[in-house]
Amino acid sequence: PRKIIIDTDPGQDDAVAILLALASPELDVLGIVAVAGNVPLALTERNARRIVELAGFPEVPVHAGAVRPLVRPPITAEHVHGQTGLDGVDLPEPDVPLHPKPGIDFIVETLLAADSGEVTLCTLGPLTDVALALNRAPEIAPRIREIVMMGGAYFEVGNITPTAEFNVYVDPEAADVVLRSGVPITMLPLDVTHRALATPERLARFRALGNRCGAAVAGMLGFSERFDREKYASPGAPIHDPNVIAWLLAPELYEGRRINVAVECASPLTLGMTVADYWRVTGRPANALFLRGVDDAGFFDLLVERLARLP
Ligand code: BDR
Ligand code: CA
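# calcium ion complex -> structure
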């Protein structure tokens, strides 16, 4: 199986991505690193522990990553995810403790101990932890197989400001470090995730699985679904982060281009904008596979099929 580290800020859609990864024998989840993002670190690391327990994988270690972005004050998204970050489901306090090794140490040490090109980093939140690891130990860069990240946008532009996607906006300097690192990158931007909508019919499929994970996913995604329906009259809420895992499992569901992507780190008006050279007009070398399309029916079939394998 492909070895991955998941760096995440759960977050309902992060939680579903973790469940999808744990349910998939093609992937070996070496560990989970929680980062400050949707809610503060104390909640994201606790939520990550609740999810590994829910999935029946308490042995997967959960580490605490960065408590705040590289240089900016934290920004959270309780307006989307609720006060706990996982509103919509009532999960017990986790028994599994936080792993004592700090998340950045875990990332660096795991990459140095593994064969070069063996470990993939999956990022579902702000890129703070990966940037800190790359800054501390630049020798890990050529050892990373790939960074697969949910973040950014091109045609879909922004969701936290008119021009910025949340994960990049929260820590644009970290995204900049990652995009300049030379590590192979695959980006799952809003252009993809805004096509994967959790409609009431799809939520009913998760509920109909009859297992506790299916019920939890229906509850969590139902919480975000209400937000989008009320605010935007949308048929369902976008399922962002599970696309990172689905891409690893079934890349044929996605299409995109190898292009240059840069991040705006200065302008107050467009801070955190991902400037994607989709038409290759700049001459800047490609640094990312920027995905733009998804077979959303295929994505949901995969999710349902995998969640059925969990308790
Ligand atoms: C991203 O922001 C978070 O709120 C979601 O979990 C996702 O990672 C979407 O912009
Ligand atoms: Ca997230």
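# post-check
DSSP finds twelve helices and twelve strands in the chain.
The longest strand covers residues 27-34.
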